Amino acid sequence: MLIYAVADIHADFKRLARIGENIKRHSPDVLVIAGDIINYFKPSPVFKYLNTLPVPVFAVRGNSDPLYIEKQFKNYSNLTSLHLNRVTIQSVPFAGLSGTIPLPFRNRVCFREKLLMDKITPLIDRQTILVVHPPPWGVLDQVLGRFHSGSKMVRDFVDKTRPRILICGHIHEAAGVDEIGETTVVNCSVPKTGKGMMIELGVQGDPIVEVV
After folding, report:
1. Cα–chain-centroid distance for residue 32?
2. How confident is the model over 92-134, as pLDDT tens digits?
3. What is the chain's mean pLDDT, rounded?
4. Where are the domains of the chain?
5. What is the pLDDT of residues 48-95, one digit of tens each?
6. Residue 16 contacts by C-beta under 8 Å, 6 or more apart in sequence?
7. Which residues, in sequence order, are CB contacts of 191 under 8 Å at separation 6+?
């Protein structure tokens, strides 16, 4: 399976055009958007464009994506919200958490994090691709190359559930690939990578991740 992962589009149509070109070039099986799809307002033009893409689009909301856009997903046949939702494609399960609250030198997914974690835990196993917006604390989360600003809840959750891959974004300058135990962490922020990350999954072995 080939997963095309992006984050932090911020309703920039130049970025969307590059994403569309990459889909034509690489023919991924799914496009995953790890939040900050729009820039607070007017989701329809962005969602309409994403709906025309020739691959299914799975997404979670970030801090620039208001809660009301959750209802927008239902209006587009090619878009699926992964928030507290498990979706399987080619036997690969995806699940996600929406939201981010930026705080000084750290981030939270939401204020009632414990409740959210309890709801999503049954959806996660060792084969799951987990999608969130903020990176886990201490991994691909440094601001200015010095200050960790990830989510401690996401880090604790990954340590506990050990998903196969964690896809995130939010900290633009920290885009890259790392690991937490057996979990591959991919920060696919488009402002840093230019076009996001391509993740190739085999039946066995570690995923192959490349900047595109």
Report:
1. 6
2. 999 999 999 988 778 988 877 888 889 999 999 999 999 999 9
3. 94
4. 2-211
5. 999 999 999 999 999 999 999 999 999 999 999 999 999 999 999 999
6. 9, 46, 49, 50
7. 8, 172, 175
| Nearest CA-CA partner of 143 in 170, 178, 177 | 170
**What is the identity of the amino acid at 120?**
I
- 2-211: CATH number: 3.60.21.10
Tell me the C-alpha distance between 33 and 50, whole Å: 10
Neighbours of 166 (CB within 10 A): 29
Beta strands in the chain (DSSP E): 2-6, 30-34, 57-60, 79-81, 86-89, 92-96, 101-103, 106-108, 129-131, 142-143, 147-148, 165-168, 176-180, 183-187, 197-200, 208-211
Q: What pLDDT sits at residue 98?
A: 96
- Strand-pair category, 176-180 with 183-187: antiparallel
- Measured in residues, the chain has a length of 212
